[in-house]
Amino acid sequence: MKWGIKHQVLLLALVPTISLSLLLGIYFISTRLQDLEETLRSQGKAIASRFAHAGEYGVFSHNKHLLQKLAVSSLLEHETEGMAFYSPSGDEIAAAGKFTTGFSMPSEEALKKADVIIKSAPNAMVFIVPITLLKENNDTHSRSSQTATLIGWLKLELETGSIHSRQMQILLNSGLIVLLGLSISGYYAFYIARSISNPISALAHAVEKIKKGEFNTRTQVSAYQEIAVLGSGINTMAEALENAHQKLLDKVDQATLSLRRSLETIEVQNIELDISKRIAENANRVKSEFLADMSHEIRTPLGGVIGFVNLLKKTELNDKQKEYLATIQKTTHSLLTILNDILDFSKIEAGKLRFEYAPMNLRLCIQEVFELFATHVHEKNILLIPLIYEEIPSLILGDALRIKQIITNLVSNAIKFTEKGTVVVQTVLEYETLSHLTIRVSVIDTGIGLSVEEQKALFKAFNQPKADPNQKFGGTGLGLVISKKLAEHMGGKIGVVSEPGKETTFWFTFQAGKYTGSPLVFPQRASIEAQIQGNDIPSFSIHSKLPVLIVDDNLDNLKLLSILLEQLHIQTKTAESGEEALTFFRKEDFQLIFMDIRMPHMNGMEATQMMRAIETEQNRPRTPIIALTANVFPEEKKTLIAAGMDDYLRKPIDETVLQNILHRWIVPATQTTVSQTSPPTLKAIDWELAKKLAGNKLDLAVELMEKLLATLPAEKKNINQVFETLDWEKLRDVVHKLHGACCYCGVPELKQATQALEKATQSASKETIQPYLKTFNRAVDTLMALPIEPPKGY
Predict the structure, then answer these.
(1) What is the DSSP string of 151-195?
(2) Do residues 302 and 332 make contact, with C-beta atoms less than 8 angstroms apart?
(3) Is the separation of the CB atoms in 300 and 651 below 8 Å?
(4) What is the reported pTM?
(5) Residue 406 contacts by C-beta under 8 Å, 6 or more apart in sequence?
(6) By CB neighbour count within 10 A (0-12 exposed, 13-18 middle, 19+ buried), where does 223 fall?
(7) Once rounded to an integer, what is the mean pLDDT over residues 400-423?
(8) Residue 508 — pLDDT band, cuts 50, 70, 90?
């Protein structure tokens, strides 16, 4: 706290005065009090010694009458309360007056220190004097010729009440004097402080008004000369500020006039800029729409070509036809790759690329890339080698799709430019913090090498290195550009080390989060991201009385998807528009609907929303609707879900992915009835399946199994609690989440139970769902009772 001048002046004036007054008062008072007490002591010692000497004969001769007269006469002394004579053994001989304490024999140590023993008592001071008789000493060796013989004691008590009264009077008088002095000092201190602080406060008030812009403020100070000079200076300053302010106002008025004219000009320019901005935004919107339309219009027929090529490969062909068909297939896949590169590049340029941050297995990711190029490296007789260092964790947090995309680009280029030898993918931990990892992936090939000039052009769009001056490899040259952008978005870098004719090393780094061991669920692979190459899909056929509705405005796609489903013994019905699909949907039920997104008049999302409204209006169970889309943009997932769709199938259609979708959303006939008396015959734990799902890594399979089991009690409790609330939509979501986790562990019984329970939630009927819930609870209990130890030999 900061004190003002007034308080500081008061402090300066009062503190020394108060301190000095208190110190002097305490000193003189204590001295006076000590003098009074010392006077009483001296008086008592004198009286006691005098009467002790007078009573020597009486004590010696045991003359009680004489001693009694002496004791009574002592009472005539001022402030004497009582006196008594005692024998050497302490027996009372004579006494007169009042006593506050009894007689106690003094110790020899006390007698050696003083001739008169003085003690304090309540309201009294006690004096004890030994009465002695002197005798001549015949011992020549003695220092004294006389010795004292104790013949009795004298006890004298003096009252201290009068002394205390005088002490209190001294304290009172001294306090009044000190208070008077402090009052006089305080008065003058307040006077001086006010005479200084008031003018300064007036000056401060004037300065504050000037600060607020009241430049016509003036001060009238008639105090000390120094303060008067300060006030005169403030008045001069205020006058100068007032003049300057007036000049500034004149200039501001002039500048405002000029600014107003400029603003009119700027407003016209802003209107023109706004028109240009809207034109640019419209152009950008048109570009985005064109990009989406191009994706759909190109990928849709391309998907039909790829699909029918795959169907044609299953028929009987001669060698020449197989060769032609392989060429067509290779060309279509190259075209699809080019299209994907162009779309990715456009999204990156538009700043609309989105990244996910979820648990992923980097080893499995690299293995999937190797499986993708297995046939190619076999044809070229190239050895593809993975080197993953042990310090790389089994699970990390990152975007598996984007990391796999970069590795795929680098490995594809390495294989393309390598005629013989090896391609090595090396993965090392470059840096580690408490929460993040920096991982470096290097792709090393024994190919043709790159010159310095070629290396400079590598990461530029539409540039590609050459194997020789007369040959150019196919592609857009966008793969490395896209990889560079992806690596930078993930907090990393990308580079190359190479020389012509020697091995080439492409490397990139990325930042990943540490997996903390929370429940392992892969939402990107559970429902809307069902585009996995499923190793857990058994060979099966699906039978149902209800058909599958296929909605697409492209007849080739309708035909292709119908053939693929009919090969799986699934009844189908086709609609060429959203309106036709709604007509069918109002009249009959379907076990599944494949809905194309882009259709004229009524697109797939509009048709889906109307179907969901019909379900609500007619109280019908929810029918799974799978989007058919040629777009691959991550942000489209949320739009599809918001429109009421359950999953999506990407064009061109892959048969394995299609089987994943069917296996997920259609319960086979063998699973349509579940009862308490007929439990599933599937294994609770299938270690062969678990090991296969973990990329043949037994330790990873055990880790995934342990993490699943750690979450099962809480998941079971949550599912049963949601069931009691009758919130079927929420129940479907929580079961759906657990089912996704079961897909990556070898728990076929629990997986089938969660899948059946999830399917049953579409009925929105407690009686229908309850048997499936009991089967689910039984499967959880069975699994929890088993040891998590693979049999010997795995």
Answers:
(1) EEEEEEEEE-HHHHHHHHHHHHHHHHHHHHHHHHHHHHHHHHHHH
(2) yes
(3) yes
(4) 0.41
(5) 441, 483, 486, 487, 494, 508, 510
(6) middle
(7) 89
(8) very high
> What is the rounded end-to-end Cα distance, in angstroms, of the chain?
78
b/e 408-419 (16+ beta carbons within 10 angstroms → b): bbbbbbbbbbbe
User: If DSSP codes are grouped into helix, strand and coil, which group holds residue 62?
Assistant: coil
Name the strand (E) or helix (H) holding 403. helix 400-416
Summarize pLDDT for 197-221 with one digit per residue, the tens. 777 777 778 888 887 878 787 777 6
**SS3 sequence of 215-240:** CCCCCCCCCCHHHHHHHHHHHHHHHH
**Tokens 């400029």, located at residue:** 262
Tokens at 217, concatenated: 């403020």
Angstrom distance (rounded) from CA 776 to CA 719: 10
Please give the average per-residue pLDDT across 72-94, as a whole number: 85
Which residue in the block uniquely carries the two structure tokens 């949320």? 638
Q: Is the dihedral of CA 347, 348, 352, 356 positive or negative?
A: positive
Cα–Cα distance between 783 and 586 in angstroms, integer?
Answer: 43
Tell me how far apart the alpha carbons of residues 239 and 242 are, in angstroms, rounded to a whole number.
5
What does the alpha-carbon distance between residue 164 and residue 175 come to, in Å, rounded to a whole number? 16
How far apart CA 720 and CA 730 sit, in angstroms, is 12
Token representation of residue 735: 């079961």
Of 49 and 141, more confident: 49
Q: What is the token pair recorded at 334?
A: 């190259």
- Give all strands (DSSP E) within 446-503, no chain letters: 466-468, 471-472, 494-497
Rg (CA), the chain: 54
d(CA 601, CA 620): 26
